[in-house]
């Protein structure tokens, strides 16, 4: 495993083990925190760890990828209850200087029996990273932001029924996606993507970081896609409500 990926995996595991050494990868003089429940800097990270009852946390990082100076991980957590999280860390001169994340309480399995974290982890098609990022970026703007549903089928293989879904509420296939959106609409819950902040990728995996609203409430969406043969084949996500500004413990914003 490349050194910066390993450093991220070890740092996240330190939440469970309380090991001090992995935390040394964080630049003590510059650590910009975008988790709005944590204060800025290394002290904020330390305060989060101190709030956990000793021996209570569990951390299992299932996927880790790197795009330039950014390493992003997909992790099953258990602290104050089970959660699935995406974490993004920015490296500068060999140290971590910035962190973003998105956490959702673990739910599911979904109607197709898939969990929020299971499925393929193997990195493939490193030579297709940029093409896969371009594909997923186009999908995100066409479908998620602009609602161009006439273009939806073109992003999937065949009739789209081989598409694997890990959102805990939605079944596999484009039919499952349509049914999921219909159920939300029936419940009067509007799902909106307003702005895409990041599209990160390595090989066959691409992560999209977006801002929008769910049921009218400000929301952060992290969507991970697996691409196969130039089509979207699989999807995982976490959805997190963005708290009101008055509750933020740092001024850096979620994104």
From TrEMBL:
Matches recorded under SUPFAM superfamilies: NTF2-like
Family annotation (InterPro entries): NTF2-like_dom_sf, SnoaL-like
Superkingdom of the organism of origin: Bacteria
A Pfam family hit: SnoaL_2
Domain SnoaL-like: 141-235
Name the record gives this protein: Nuclear transport factor 2 family protein
């Amino acid at each position: 495993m490349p050194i910066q990926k390993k450093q991220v995996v070890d740092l996240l595991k330190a939440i469970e083990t309380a090991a001090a050494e992995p935390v040394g990868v964080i630049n003590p003089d510059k650590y910009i925190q975008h988790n709005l429940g944590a204060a800025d800097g290394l002290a904020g990270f330390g305060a989060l760890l101190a709030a956990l009852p000793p021996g209570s946390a569990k951390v299992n990082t299932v996927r880790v990828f790197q795009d330039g100076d950014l390493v992003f991980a997909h992790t099953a957590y258990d602290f104050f209850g089970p959660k699935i999280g995406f974490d993004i860390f920015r490296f500068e001169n060999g140290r971590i200087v910035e962190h973003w994340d998105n956490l959702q309480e673990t739910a599911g399995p979904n109607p197709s029996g898939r969990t929020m974290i299971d499925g393929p982890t193997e990195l493939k098609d490193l030579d297709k990273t940029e093409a896969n990022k371009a594909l997923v970026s186009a999908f995100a703007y066409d479908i998620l932001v602009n609602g161009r549903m006439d273009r939806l089928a073109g992003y999937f293989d065949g009739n789209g029924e081989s598409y694997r879904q890990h959102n805990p509420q939605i079944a596999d296939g484009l039919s499952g996606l349509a049914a999921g959106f219909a159920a939300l609409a029936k419940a009067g819950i509007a799902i909106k993507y307003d702005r895409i902040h990041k599209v990160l990728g390595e090989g066959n995996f691409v992560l999209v970081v977006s801002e929008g609203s769910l049921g009218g409430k400000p929301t952060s969406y992290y969507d991970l896609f697996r691409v196969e043969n130039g089509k979207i084949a699989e999807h995982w996500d976490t959805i997190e409500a963005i708290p009101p500004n008055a509750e933020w413990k740092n001024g850096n914003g979620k994104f």
